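Good morning,

Attaching, inline, the C-alpha cells for the sequence recovery test we're adding to the shared suite. The designed sequence is right after.
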C-alpha cells in the first residue's frame, strides 16, 4: 500500500480515521480516501501528520524507516 506507514501509525496509536481527520482539518471521508490511496495527501496534511505523530514526512511516505523527525531550523 502506498501510504501504509500513515495507516499503521494511526492504528498503532489507537486513533480512528475521524479523529485524525479532525486533527488535520478534513472530513473523515476525505481522510479515508487519502489513506487508501484514492487521493494523494496534500503537503499541508503530510506536515500536520508528521507534527502530530512526531515523525518525518519521509517516514510517512515510506522513504525511510527512521521515525525521528528532522531538526527544525
Amino acid at each position: 500500500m502506498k501510504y501504509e506507514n500513515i495507516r499503521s501509525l494511526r492504528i498503532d496509536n489507537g486513533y480512528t480515521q475521524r479523529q485524525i481527520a479532525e486533527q488535520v482539518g478534513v472530513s473523515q471521508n476525505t481522510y479515508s480516501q487519502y489513506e487508501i490511496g484514492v487521493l494523494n495527501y496534500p503537503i499541508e496534511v503530510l506536515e500536520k501528520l508528521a507534527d502530530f505523530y512526531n515523525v518525518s514526512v519521509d517516514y510517512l511516505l515510506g522513504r525511510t524507516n527512521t521515525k525521528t523527525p528532522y531538526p527544525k531550523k
